[in-house]
TrEMBL record:
Domain of life: Eukaryota
Keyword NADP: no
Name of the protein described by the UniProt record: Saposin B-type domain-containing protein
Record-annotated membrane-spanning stretches: none
Length: 193
């Protein structure tokens, strides 16, 4: 049985092209997930950063559209996207690291955006849990009350969501060592840790 020349050439072309693609492009990257068990340790801090971001992003929007006023719809749109890493409003999450400090985990803001690993997924998840179905409530509050940042933090983190109503628990010993190892690896120190 003889195959037509065009079919043979097509098969050979496909094989040649596919052999030139580096393995790194064809290999799937591991899917990183949030560490849900870490959320109680950082929930209040995430809420405070979230309130700050909402305030800053609404202020930035007002500057962009001036002399017009920011509408409630504009604020709702920001609130709906601020906890989503796939949206521009969620880019602030990429600048935050989770760092061990004694028996606590702290959120530390960096100058530049980093790669998204389980840390940023954990912060994104905490942010989503905090804002949840309250995004329109906080947007309405911001539109009507036009609060200063401290009042927005109080409203969002203590009154509306209760994210800061209880003191975060102490980090278990094993968790501290995991974040210490992660922090050292990020600084390029690894090996037999």
């Amino acid at each position: 049985m003889e195959y037509p020349k065009s079919s043979v050439l097509l098969v050979i072309s496909v094989l040649l092209i596919s052999s030139c693609i580096p393995v790194s492009y064809s290999a799937k990257k591991p899917v990183l997930t949030a560490r849900k068990e870490d959320i109680p340790f950082i929930k209040c801090q995430v809420c405070e950063k979230l309130a700050s971001q909402l305030y800053q992003q609404v202020d930035k929007k007002q500057t962009q559209i001036s002399p017009k006023k920011v509408t409630e719809f504009d604020i709702i749109e920001i609130a709906e996207n601020v906890c989503n890493l796939k949206k521009e409003e969620g880019d602030w999450i990429l600048k935050i690291d989770i760092v061990e400090n004694g028996k606590k985990l702290e959120l530390v803001e960096q100058d530049t955006e980093g790669e998204c690993h389980s840390e940023c997924k954990t912060i994104e998840r905490a942010c989503q849990e905090i804002l949840g179905l309250s995004d329109t409530d906080v947007a309405e509050y911001m539109f009507k009350a036009k609060p200063k940042i401290d009042l927005l933090v109080k409203y969002l983190c203590k009154d509306l969501t209760k994210a800061c109503s209880v003191k975060p628990p102490a980090v278990p010993k094993m968790e501290i060592s995991r974040y210490t190892i992660f922090s050292l690896k990020k600084k390029g120190i690894s090996g037999a840790i």
